[in-house]
């Protein structure tokens, strides 16, 4: 019996993983591609099932099942994408049409701080019902994302309410779920409130927030996050510390919270003597209520499903059924929402559950066998975070480019605190409509373990060498996954060998420590925590804003491909989430091939001024051949590029009179990233600079990219008005233009700016630490 229980049923989970991988690649494609692949997979599945080859019945069955799974998710995904893309919304977004829409609110509004004096932004998603633009009206179910200013009423919208609004449509980046971005004009009008059940849950959520409001700051963010999925009150620095310690899943509703709530309901109904036949319906009713309280959005539904599978994994009686249940859950969720395939949250939740299913029980038993009987429970407690961390590590590397060594210890210390925080928080939420004082008392009780959770995260983030830098991007994830599999497969062999020759284990441990331990003074390039870098590409511009691990916003490419290739490779950039070509002079576009060779480029953004015509035509043709979607930007456009928020300041709708049309048509970007604000000015001359000055008046910047390589043609009021601390100049040594001009350098220094110039300093970078901005020079 024990040997039978130890065997895991992989027949459904392997096809589910194959189908997931296929959907990751195909879901951004046109629906016809998904349907075609799904139909082909269905035909092949039927053929393989009837075929006599491969000879092994098990192999044949697995291949047929994998093809059937691919067919299922692709056909379902094709139906979803076809529904989303049907209608004229995408075309009107490309035309930047002004539209009036009626729509249903499908996510909670999120308020995003810009990190400066400007009003925060409100971001939410809508599912359209009707849209009117260009004198035409259409019925559609396209999803759109709204980016609005705070204070206009968008932050007060209720989930699942129906609204009417007017705004300008803008295209989204390729591969996004949303078909368009709606930049509203004015406040929305609510035409239909949510149903009674949803209004009741809204009331509970509001009262619960009131109950939690008096508690400590960290707990005030964590308790609503764990109970109702509201992370808006979590301090930003705590969010970063939880990410650094691998505790992000504890800052919002996850499968573990679902398992805790359903487990608590199951224990309660058993304790009060509810008849056996009623227990499962009551537990399911409790699960449904918890999901409604958290909002049945895709992330919460995923957490509910994975939490249920996790309960099976931790149950000795049902462990064998948990792996088929996981495979069925993955397929079911992907059929309901194919975009989950590309969600990091879905990947982490699925892999964590897989780790619990496969390793938690055997590792817990192995740990327990080496501990005294009274301490055997510690084995299971250690196995849970270790199994989840091992399974999730490759995805964590994708997200943050490092391995949090402190994660297992931090999660082990945090584990006993999650249950009381969640259960007491849910009780506070349930009681809050009846008695706010009692709910506040329960909220304080939940706040005690929640505050300890926050302190564990903060302490873990401060542990020296608590994280190990790793190879960024997909290459790093694949490398870590391969090493993990190799370690697990060869583990028993190593264990037996090290028992016989322990000195080999000491030597191996020393080699690993030598490879991973950071050597003093060898930080190299790029500097830790860099925010923006200027590449030494000669007489030209190429600036890189870090938007995530291995990802960047690249602004211009310099004259030649080789220097920008070297620069991006040295910075560890593998994904260019947005390539901005400020204008079409060759010293800003000539190195395009160098960017395309070294990194994948998601989208290119260009100026509407096509001057000079030959260079602009050649550049756009190169982007088309490379398959890079190209979007034209004008003043007022707002982009979310990874961790960066980008506002286009110039050019506007009217051309600038005087000066160089190409230079004055440069895209000027206001970029906020990692608490740092940048003004990137292309090659604008005084005529355009005066307009930019009016647009950015009153804004404080940290970094100014000096216009036109530091030429003498500067608008002094704009330069000094930015109040920047650092000035970056992209310029070539011994150039014949006299750049940068002495009087421009004097202007920058008199404004109190530290000047970094690529002709003298080589590659340059700006990072941020607790004391503020730090400048770095890499002498060329």
Automatic annotation (TrEMBL):
The keyword Zinc does not apply. The keyword Membrane applies. One of its GO terms (cellular component) is plasma membrane. Its main location: membrane. It is found in: Cell membrane. It is a multi-pass membrane protein. InterPro entries: ComA-like_MBL, ComEC_N, Competence_DNA_uptake, Metallo-B-lactamas, RibonucZ/Hydroxyglut_hydro. Residues 539-739 form the Metallo-beta-lactamase domain. The chain crosses the membrane at residues 61-82, 257-278, 298-316, 323-340, 405-431, 477-494. Keywords: Cell membrane, Membrane, Transmembrane, Transmembrane helix. This is Competence protein ComEC. It comes from Ornithinimicrobium humiphilum.
């Amino acid at each position: 019996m024990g040997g039978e229980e130890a065997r895991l049923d992989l027949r459904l989970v392997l096809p589910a993983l194959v189908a997931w991988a296929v959907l990751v690649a195909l879901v951004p494609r046109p629906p016809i591609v998904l349907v075609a692949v799904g139909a082909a997979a269905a035909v092949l599945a039927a053929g393989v099932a009837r075929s006599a080859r491969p000879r092994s019945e098990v192999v044949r069955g697995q291949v047929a099942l994998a093809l059937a799974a691919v067919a299922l998710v692709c056909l379902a995904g094709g139906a979803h994408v076809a529904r989303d893309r049907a209608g004229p919304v995408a075309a009107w977004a490309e035309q930047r049409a002004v539209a009036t829409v009626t729509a249903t609110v499908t996510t909670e509004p999120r308020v995003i701080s810009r990190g400066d004096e400007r009003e925060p932004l409100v971001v939410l998603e809508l599912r359209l019902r009707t849209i009117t633009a260009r004198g035409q009206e259409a019925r559609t179910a396209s999803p759109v994302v709204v980016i609005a200013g705070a204070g206009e009423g968008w932050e007060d919208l209720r989930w699942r309410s129906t609204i009417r609004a007017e705004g300008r449509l803008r295209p989204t980046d390729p591969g996004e779920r949303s078909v368009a971005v709606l930049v509203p004009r004015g406040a929305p009008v609510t035409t239909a409130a949510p149903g009674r059940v949803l209004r009741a849950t809204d009331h509970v959520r509001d009262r619960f927030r009131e109950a939690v409001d008096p508690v400590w700051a960290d707990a005030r963010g964590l308790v609503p996050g764990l109970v109702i999925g509201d992370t808006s009150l979590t301090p930003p620095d705590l969010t970063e510390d939880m990410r650094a310690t691998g505790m992000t899943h504890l800052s919002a509703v996850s499968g573990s919270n679902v398992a805790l709530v359903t487990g608590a309901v199951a224990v309660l109904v058993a304790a009060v003597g509810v008849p056996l036949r009623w227990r499962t319906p009551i537990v399911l009713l409790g699960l449904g209520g918890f999901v409604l309280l958290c909002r049945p959005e895709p992330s919460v539904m995923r957490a509910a499903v994975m939490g249920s599978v996790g309960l099976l994994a931790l149950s000795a009686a049902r462990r064998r059924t948990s792996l088929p249940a996981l495979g069925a859950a993955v397929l079911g969720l992907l059929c309901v929402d194919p975009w989950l395939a590309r969600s990091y949250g879905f990947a982490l939740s699925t892999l964590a559950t897989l780790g619990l299913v496969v390793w938690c029980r055997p590792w817990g038993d192995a740990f327990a066998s080496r501990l005294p009987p009274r301490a055997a429970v510690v084995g299971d407690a250690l196995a849970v975070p270790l199994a989840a961390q091992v399974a999730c590590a490759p995805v964590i590397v994708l997200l943050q480019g490092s391995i949090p060594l402190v994660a297992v210890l931090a999660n082990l210390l945090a584990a006993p605190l999650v249950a009381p925080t969640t259960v007491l928080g849910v009780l506070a939420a349930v009681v809050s409509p009846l008695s706010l004082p009692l709910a506040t008392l329960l909220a304080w009780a939940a706040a005690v373990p929640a505050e300890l959770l926050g302190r564990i995260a903060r302490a873990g983030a401060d542990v020296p060498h608590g994280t190990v830098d790793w190879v960024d991007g997909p290459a790093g994830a694949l490398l870590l996954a391969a090493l993990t599999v190799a370690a697990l497969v060869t583990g028993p062999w190593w264990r037996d060998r090290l028992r016989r020759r322990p000195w080999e284990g000491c030597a191996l441990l020393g080699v690993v420590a030598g490879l991973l331990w950071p050597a003093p003074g060898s930080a190299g390039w790029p500097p830790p925590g860099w925010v923006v870098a200027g590449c030494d590409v000669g007489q030209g511009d190429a600036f890189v804003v870090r938007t995530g691990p291995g990802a960047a916003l690249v602004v211009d490419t310099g004259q030649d491909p080789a220097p920008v290739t070297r620069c991006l490779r040295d910075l560890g950039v593998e994904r260019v989430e947005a390539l901005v070509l400020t204008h079409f002079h060759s010293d800003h576009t000539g190195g395009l091939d160098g960017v395309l060779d070294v990194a994948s480029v998601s989208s290119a953004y260009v100026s509407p001024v096509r001057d000079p015509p030959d260079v602009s035509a050649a550049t756009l043709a190169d982007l088309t051949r490379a398959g890079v979607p190209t979007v034209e930007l004008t003043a007022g456009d707002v982009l979310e590029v990874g961790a960066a928020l980008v506002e286009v300041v110039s050019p506007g709708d009217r051309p600038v009179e005087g000066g160089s049309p190409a230079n004055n048509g440069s895209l000027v970007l206001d970029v906020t990233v990692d608490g740092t604000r940048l003004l990137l000015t292309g090659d604008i001359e005084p005529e355009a600079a005066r307009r930019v000055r009016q647009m950015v008046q009153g804004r404080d910047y940290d970094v100014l990219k000096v216009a036109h390589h530091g030429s003498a043609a500067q608008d002094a009021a704009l330069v000094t008005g930015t109040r920047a601390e650092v000035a970056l100049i992209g310029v070539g040594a011994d150039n014949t233009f006299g750049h940068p001009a002495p009087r421009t350098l004097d202007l920058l220094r008199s404004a109190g700016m530290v000047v970094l110039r690529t002709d003298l300093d080589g590659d340059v970078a700006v990072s941020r630490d607790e004391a503020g901005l730090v400048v770095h020079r890499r002498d060329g």
